Amino acid sequence: MRVCKIVIPLWISVISATFLARAQGTFQNLDFESSRIIPIVNGDYGQTTIAVTNALPGWAVFIGSNQVSQITYNDPALGSTWVTLWATNGQQISRNYSVLLQGGLTASSASISQTGLIPVLAESLLFEAQPQADAGTLEVSLRGVNLPFFALSSGANYTLYGADISAFAGQTEQLTFSALVEVSSYGNDWNIDNIQFSNLPIPEPGVFSLSVLGALLLGWRVLRRRG
Hints:
The chain is an alpha+beta fold. The chain contains 3 helices and 14 strands. The protein has a single domain (11-202), classed as Jelly Rolls. The strands form 2 sheets. It has an 8-stranded mixed sheet. A 6-stranded antiparallel sheet has the order 3-2-7-13-9-10, with no helix packed on it. A hairpin with a 4-residue loop joins strand 11 and strand 12. The longest helix has 22 residues, at 205-226. 37% of the residues are buried.
């Protein structure tokens, strides 16, 4: 499913103020900061690679339906379906590491997947992403069920996205992020980082927009009275 591009600029300030669920169930390395750069010279693909167990501890990597044991770092593919680790080269979204999913033309999707216990109070799944300008479809799923998600806020080099996962709270499920093949373009690149479970529900776009508009009108009236 394509992301619904509805931007709610104030949502991030609400999150930072309170209620963000720190407990992440039994999921691990959701910000990819546990990565270890242990190069394998002339690896599986005739170039320097890293074992997935070192590059992305806790995660499995799939190219189409095939699970791979090695990925590259700071070396994205050109037109191929691939997963690479952005590692301290300035391309990562924050801190040291991000994961680039490339839905190229050589397989159906580039995916990372992990199974874990979702926090019992979780209402939403949040993640930061930096899609390429003409990016196509990113799928996010739990138990193989695609999660509709939409933009909540924008940062300097990312967009914060959110999805309602309240139906899965307290359950052990497989979480998967997949950049799908895009036959009409050269590729479909999504840079992913900082995945989090939150106990804040994702607001209904229309309801939230009206409440923000109301707050702005109230503030404007207060300023007029003070002026």
